[in-house]
């Protein structure tokens, strides 16, 4: 009898935990023209218009993480969407002239101007940008890929973190970026974050990065992590993140799984959809959301 009772209880609780929340990811490095497919700022502006028309509200990624940790399903009901940004170029925050695309509105401006940002469910910030933290790594990447224009400066992180539109999150110490001579990985393996599979490497790439982010933002960083390249190693997902929370201080970690966050998602590998990879046009975007509607 007791067994049956427990079974029923579990079933009820599973039934009540039904949600499918898309987490979107944009890159301000993906700007080389003015068309939707060539410019993530243009794409996001268009996508936000659709989301508003379709009756979606923004869910703060921080609140998503907290609700998943606390099994607070009440917060996760309704038409919700989360927005994130990767790699932290200055186009995230500053409106700027682009050598190829002309005047570009920053993600911060696009989001601030959209009525959608007034619909935020849960805590601020309304969205999160994930930064490559190491100053030396950013300098080298900027020189090698971005014409040395200081496009990976951290001058805006603290101010941005305090405004509540884009939080400043952790995208690792050096992204194990291929252009760096040395990366924080024991065998100096570059171009893959799957190679971060020991405590020592994880401590450098994640905990030390968080210490620096906290210092630069005056303690206003958002405690969320996004895996470089979307690479979530078994060690990080199943050992480091769940077992060393006091050290790394993250509340959740995001990959790029191309599906919505549901009750069965792993807190340490939450899936996201990436603009340019999982959708490339307004039609793709609408289809993605109509398919989600069919699931719920
Ligand atoms: Zn990245």
Q: Can you give a write-up of this model?
A:
The structure is a single chain. The chain has one domain (22-295): Glycoside hydrolase/deacetylase (TIM Barrel), CATH 3.20.20. Helices cover 37% and strands 15% of the residues. The strands form 4 sheets. Strands 2, 3, 4, 7, 8 and 12 form a 6-stranded parallel β-sheet that branches. The longest helix is centred in the last third of the chain and has 18 residues, at 199-216. Residues 1-16 have low confidence and may be disordered. It has 296 residues and is α/β, with parallel strands linked by helices. Bound molecules: zinc ion. Residues 86-87, 171, 175, 228 line the site of zinc ion.
Task: Provide a concise account of the structure shown.
This protein is of the alpha/beta class.
